[in-house]
Amino acid sequence: MEELKDKLFSKKNVGWENMETRQKEEIFNFCKGYMDYLNKAKTEREFIKQAKIVADENGFKDISEFNELKPGDRVYFINREKSMYLAVIGKNKMENGLHIIGSHVDSPRLDLKPNPLYEDSGFAYFKTHYYGGIKKYQWTAIPLSIHGVIVKPSGEKIEVNVGESDTDPIFTITDLLPHLAQEQMEKKLKNGVEGEALNLLIGSIPMDGEKVSEKVKLNILNILNQKYGVVEEDLYSAELELVPAFKARTLGFDESMVAAYGQDDKICAYTSLMAMMNLENVENTAVCILSDKEEIGSMGNTGMESHMFDYFVSELLNKTGENRVNLLDKVFCYSKMLSSDVDAGFDPIYANVSDKNNAGFLGKGIALVKYTGSRGKAGASDANAEFVAWVRNMLDKNEIKYQLTELGKVDIGGGGTIAYILANKGVDVIDCGIPVLSMHAPYEVTSKFDIYEAFRIYKAFWNE
Ligand code: MN
Ligand code: MN
């Protein structure tokens, strides 16, 4: 009977079981690289900056440096410092289809408003507008750092990064003491901290001697002027983002997990980027998408909804000499894609939101999500059974652990990724990412086992 069960039941055991020490070391080493990278790349601009360094070190070159492309060439295109497409040109013609892996490098955060700076009761603050789906109360009373750019009308770009080094000051958003929070505590959790209350505390010393109002604000502007050469109006043309000042850390006595900000979706971006760096000769052209703006709907010219990706693929076709009228449509129709975005990990503390039979568990390998969406799969690009079978075959051949999952119980909620955007072009797409606990919180949790499995699956897919 046990034998029959073993033959017929699907296998869902934990990846750590009976693991050799050497393999565990390999996983831990890989994840150390991941955590180091995360500490240098908390925003989309920083992620792309690091990705360029990594790609340059691995023989990739900007597409503008190529007059023509041939099999084996390693090429990238960076879109406005916030998104990036990389490719290794395959032996097969591109009209036979590309192998695409797509993730996003933006994460939920707080952005500064265009007129952020004000003074109230002896304190100076920056006003913020949150970016992406957050639980606002999670962003108070934690250390925050400021990352981004200020661009002056002359075009001069000033990079800002304050709060990461141990000698830097940090910033925070204050919360009400429990002693006086009776009214607040009676509110619904989503209204406990209002969006307009997410004001960042940035200073409290008034400027000396002057007979003017708003002396604390003046003092802050004076500091910013001395440090960056900017005036208040320069904040109009700035993109300043507040992110947690935490470092990525190993989690647990057994050191099996990673806790870090922005793992959605830098975890899939990093693992796919590393997999691409490891490619040698590929049959089909391998394409890695690192997109922006996914957390606010993939709109805009750095988001996946823009035509920038089509432009990149057209340029590949032009430079391989393959292009002809309407070929781009054919290329997409014959392409395959793993939409590599994180999945909701099953959390036993909040077990009631998940269907245990269809939930993604940490440590059980990559989660394949056939469809996302909500309220009856609405908005989902449901992957074809034929394509799911193709992916299963690829995973089985490479002995890669995976699970087929859904994001939560039916009608409890839902979510989406960039999968449907490529599917709408005709690409065969399935979501394929890493399960995360506390997704979208300032500190997210993942399993090191899954991180390494993701790296393996992305490599295997491109080598297929
Ligand atoms: Mn995501
Ligand atoms: Mn997300």
Task: Note the main attributes of this structure.
Aminopeptidase i, Domain 2; binds manganese (II) ion; nine-stranded mixed beta sheet; alpha/beta
Describe it:
The chain has 464 residues and is of the alpha/beta class. It folds into two domains: 2-107 and 261-463, Zn peptidases (Aminopeptidase); 109-244, Roll (Aminopeptidase i, Domain 2). It contains twelve helices and 22 strands. The strands form five sheets. A nine-stranded mixed sheet has the order 1-2-3-13-4-14-20-16-18, sandwiched between helices. A six-stranded antiparallel sheet has the order 8-7-10-5-6-9, covered by helices on one side. Strand 2 and strand 3 (83-88) form a beta hairpin. Bound molecules: manganese (II) ion (2 copies).
Number of helices: 12
Number of strands: 22
Counting helices, strands and paired strands, the structural category is alpha/beta
Shape assignment = globular
Regions with little confidence, pLDDT below 50 for 5+ residues: none
Layout of helices and strands, plus pairs?
Blueprint (H helix, E strand, L loop, with lengths): L1 H7 L12 H20 L3 H14 L3 E2 L11 E6 L3 E6 L10 E6 L4 E12 L2 E9 L12 E8 L5 E6 L19 H5 L2 H4 L6 E5 L11 H14 L9 E7 L4 E3 L5 E4 L2 H15 L8 E6 L16 H12 L7 H7 L2 E4 L3 E2 L21 E4 L3 E2 L10 H13 L4 E3 L9 E2 L3 H5 L4 E6 L1 E2 L7 E4 H16 L1
Parallel strand pairs: 1-2, 4-13, 4-14, 14-20, 15-21, 16-18
Antiparallel strand pairs: 2-3, 3-13, 5-6, 5-10, 6-9, 7-8, 7-10, 11-12, 12-22, 16-20, 17-19
Helix pairs in contact: 2-12, 7-12
Bound molecules: manganese (II) ion (2 copies).
The site of one manganese (II) ion has 3 residues, from loops.
